[in-house]
Structure formats: C-alpha cells, structure tokens
C-alpha cells in the first residue's frame, strides 16, 4: 500500500514536495513574508533610514538591506514625507515586529503589489456601491434618543456634503436604504477620477473602516477630524455605551484600533495626493 | 469644522509620542527634523502683524490649514496606535498557559521522566 501512495505523490509533483518549489517565485516569498503571522519575527535591524533611488522615488533601508514588499518588489514611495512616516513605523518596533500596527506600511504594500489586481475604475465603482449602504444614511426608528442623536449628528454632515458637491443623498429608515440618484453617482465618479491610484487605495481603506463614504469624504476634504469621524461612525455604539456602560477591553480597544487605521488611511490619501509648490509673491504685496 | 487643537499642542503631542517611541535619541530621527521644519515653516501668529508675517502673509492660508489638519491626523495615528498596543498587551497579550500551569489548574503535576 505504501508503494501506491508514493507513486500518487510523485504524480502530483510540485504541490506535495516542497523542495521542488522555486525559492525565487513570488508565491514562495509571499508565503515566507507572511509566515510571521504564526511565528513572530524578531527585529533584525538596528537602524532605519530612507534614501532616494531612481526616478525620484524613496526607499527604506533596514541597516544595509532595502525593504521589499510581500510580493517581492522594491518598496518605493513617491514622496519623502510618506517615506519618513513609514521609516518611523519600522523604527518604532521593539523586540518583535508587529505588522498589525504598521498601517502605513501595509497600505503602501497594497498599493505597490495590487494583489487583487484592481484598477481605478473598479475601485471607484466599489466606493459608489458603498454609498447605497452608507452608515450616515441608514437611520433607525427607535429608540427615540438614538433617532434624535442621529438626526443631530449625522444631518449636518449630510448637508455639508450635499452642499459641497451639489448632490442629493438623503437618509432613510427603511431596510432598503436611500435611493441614490444617478446624477449624484456621476458627480462623485467624476470627482473620484481625479484621485490617483494610491490615493484611491487609501480612500477605499478608510471607507471600509468607517463603513461610510460620506464620513470618509469628510475627512479627506478636511471638514472632519479623524476623532470626529470615528465618533460619528460609532454613533450607535457610543449611545449604547452611555446607556449600558463602557467595556475597556472591547469598546476602547475597538475605538483606538479604528482611530489608528482611519488616521493612517487619511494620512495616506493626503500624502499621496498633495503636491507642494512654493509661489513667490511680488515684493510689493508684503510691504502693504 | 475647526474643532482641532492649537498647532502648538499638536506639535508638543507629536514630539512626546516620538520621544516615547524612540527614547532619548528621538531628536536625531528624520521624523523629528521634518516635524520641526514643517511647524516652523507654517507658524501662524494671530493676528499677523506687519512685523510677524507668516510665510505667505495671508490671514487664512489654505496650505497652513491643510498642514494643521495633517499634523492632527498624524498625532491621532501615533497616539491611538500606542494606546491600542497598550490595551492589546494588557488584555489580549497573555498567550497560552504552559503545560505546568494547565496541570496546576486542576491540581495535578506533570510526571517527571526517570533519569
């Protein structure tokens, strides 16, 4: 019986005999990088520094080695600020590497590797689909205190975004959610098209965390701070906490994690889409 | 919505976070020099007098407000990451008990191998 099993194994080739897997293939390196999910990787470097490589892109150096993405590519970022922030994340690691705290690094890796092979159009469509189930538009009918709270906190944000983009979104308390008119979607589609791929990656991340397109646009347009947006996203939970009490190891834990992820996503969007240029004004303006 | 902390407090907050993260040599890090650079460049005085003109000379500079919001976001990122990690270690970081402890829970001891 053993002889037949051995024959079966050799027929399946690469899958069952790990020593045949090519060490250079991206799949192997992907698996190698992520084996840290089970066993912890120790911090293996002393210094973290950034350097500018070809094409003006910035790279991260851990001691002498250049950082790579899980997909095997060289880790490059388009601007210096983002590189400094990522380097700070790596420098903040103590004995073990905790990848779940390195949100900016994760976002850069996603933008560079694009493991799900998405393009801009697909991401924009996904974001617009989310608008139909936006948190801020979904209202409850009872308890009365929560209805009032939702009206007082969420309506101003809805008004702001409706005025800012000249669209109508509206809110609804039915199970189907609000009807988003096509004109609204077209306006947002046009607006989102002006963002580059990296910014859209960040924006998608923020939308997924906050469960709301409206609140995400609020942060990106700098109308809301991260803390405010997180509070608005968790409005019902905050209401229940005030009623039933706070549980630190669940409520606070979730809130700080949400804040950290949203802040990382928002920073990623802003850093990927800004361009700083200094314009020299005429001298007579300053003397006036 | 201007519910943000004043820039000086944000700057102090970020520097405190960097110091907690990196220890006494935080002043050598590239993050420190960049933060100080940015805050000096975008420093506002309210109201701006003729002798204390800001980089642009405007009362309400959009780039300044953007930088203020971004610095607030970065402070939020650093502070909430640290707090989240602390809560994780406090409540969720214990891991598994060792075999001796598990046996001890029911009042037994592990057998010792002879020799």
TrEMBL record, chain B:
Pfam families recorded: Complex1_LYR_2 (PF13233)
GO cellular component terms listed in the entry, alphabetical order: mitochondrion
Domain of life, source organism: Eukaryota
Transmembrane region(s): none
InterPro entries in UniProt: FMC1_homologue (IPR037667)
Physiological role: Plays a role in the assembly/stability of the mitochondrial membrane ATP synthase (F(1)F(0) ATP synthase or Complex V).
Membership in a protein family: Belongs to the FMC1 family.
Official protein name in the record: Protein FMC1 homolog
């Amino acid at each position: 019986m053993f002889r037949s099993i051995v024959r079966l194994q050799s027929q399946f080739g690469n899958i069952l005999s790990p020593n045949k897997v090519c060490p250079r293939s991206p799949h192997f390196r992907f698996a190698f990088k992520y084996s840290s999910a089970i066993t912890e990787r120790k911090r293996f470097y002393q210094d973290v520094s950034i350097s500018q490589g070809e094409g003006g892109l910035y790279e991260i150096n851990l001691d002498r080695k250049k950082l790579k993405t899980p997909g095997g590519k060289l880790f490059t970022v388009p601007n210096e600020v983002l590189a400094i922030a990522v380097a700070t994340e790596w420098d903040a690691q103590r004995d073990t590497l905790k990848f779940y705290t390195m949100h900016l690094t994760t976002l850069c890796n996603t933008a560079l590797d694009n493991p799900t092979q998405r393009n801009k159009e697909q991401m924009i469509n996904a974001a617009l689909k989310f608008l139909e189930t936006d948190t801020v538009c979904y209202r409850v009918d009872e308890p009365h205190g929560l209805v009032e709270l939702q009206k007082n906190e969420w309506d101003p944000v809805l008004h702001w975004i409706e005025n800012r983009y000249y669209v109508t979104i509206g809110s609804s308390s039915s199970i189907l959610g609000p009807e988003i008119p096509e004109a609204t979607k077209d306006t947002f589609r046009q607006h989102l098209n002006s963002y580059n791929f990296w910014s859209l990656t960040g924006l998608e991340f923020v939308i997924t965390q906050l469960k709301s397109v409206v609140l995400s646009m609020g942060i990106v347009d700098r109308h809301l701070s991260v803390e405010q947006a997180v509070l608005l996203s968790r409005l019902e939970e905050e209401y229940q906490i005030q009623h039933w009490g706070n549980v630190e190891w669940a409520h606070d834990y979730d809130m700080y994690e949400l804040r950290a992820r949203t802040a990382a996503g928002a920073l990623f969007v802003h850093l990927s889409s800004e361009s700083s240029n200094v314009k020299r004004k005429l001298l007579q303006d300053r003397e006036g | 919505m201007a519910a943000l902390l004043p820039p000086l407090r944000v700057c102090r907050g970020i520097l405190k976070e960097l110091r907690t993260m990196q220890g006494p040599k935080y002043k050598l890090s590239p993050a420190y020099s960049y933060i100080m650079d940015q805050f000096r460049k975008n420093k506002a005085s309210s109201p701006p007098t003729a002798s204390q003109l800001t980089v642009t000379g405007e009362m309400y500079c959009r780039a300044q407000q953007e930088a203020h919001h971004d610095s607030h976001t970065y402070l939020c990122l650093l502070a909430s990451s640290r707090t989240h990690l602390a809560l994780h270690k406090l409540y969720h970081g214990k891991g598994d008990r060792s075999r001796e402890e598990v046996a001890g829970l029911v009042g037994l001891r592990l057998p010792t191998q002879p020799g």
